[in-house]
Amino acid sequence: MNKETVKNIRKNYNMNQRNFAQAVNCSFSLIALVEVGKRRVTKNLEDKIKQAFQLNDHDLKTLQG
């Protein structure tokens, strides 16, 4: 998962960064930093996103940036 995928998922669910961070149970600043490329998407963050939005690998492929 990369920064574009994170942003695409967030936009697909019509969420701002703050609401997305709350849904994923992480900080708003982490999401903001990931989306601008200053932090990478860790396996832990990817797992949290997949769990929060019930996404599987097929779903991620369609949302990839």
Q: In one word, what is the shape?
A: globular
* Uncertain ranges: none
Give the domain tally. 1
What's the Cα radius of gyration? 10 Å
Top-tier CATH class = Mainly Alpha
The H-level CATH homologous superfamily, spelled out, is: lambda repressor-like DNA-binding domains
**Which architecture does the CATH hierarchy give at level 2?**
Orthogonal Bundle
Mean pLDDT: 96
**Major sheet:** none
**Count of individual helical segments:** 5
The CATH topology: 434 Repressor (Amino-terminal Domain)
Q: Please report the total strand number as a whole number.
A: 0
Helix proportion of residues, in percent?
Answer: 55-70%
Q: How far is it from the N-terminal to the C-terminal residue, by CA?
A: 9 Å
Structural class: mainly alpha
Estimate what percentage of residues fall within beta strands: under 5%
Topology pattern, helix = H, strand = E: HHHHH
State the main characteristics.
single chain, 65 residues, mainly alpha, 434 Repressor (Amino-terminal Domain), 5 helices, 0% strand, globular
Describe, in plain words, how this protein is organized in 3D.
This protein has 65 residues and is mostly helical. It has a single domain, classed as 434 Repressor (Amino-terminal Domain). The protein contains five helices and no strands. The chain has helices at 3-12, 17-24, 28-35, 43-52, 57-63. The longest helix is centred in the N-terminal third of the chain and has 10 residues, at 3-12. It is globular, with a radius of gyration of 10 Å. InterPro entries: Cro/C1-type_HTH, Lambda_DNA-bd_dom_sf. One of its GO terms (molecular function) is DNA binding. This is HTH cro/C1-type domain-containing protein.
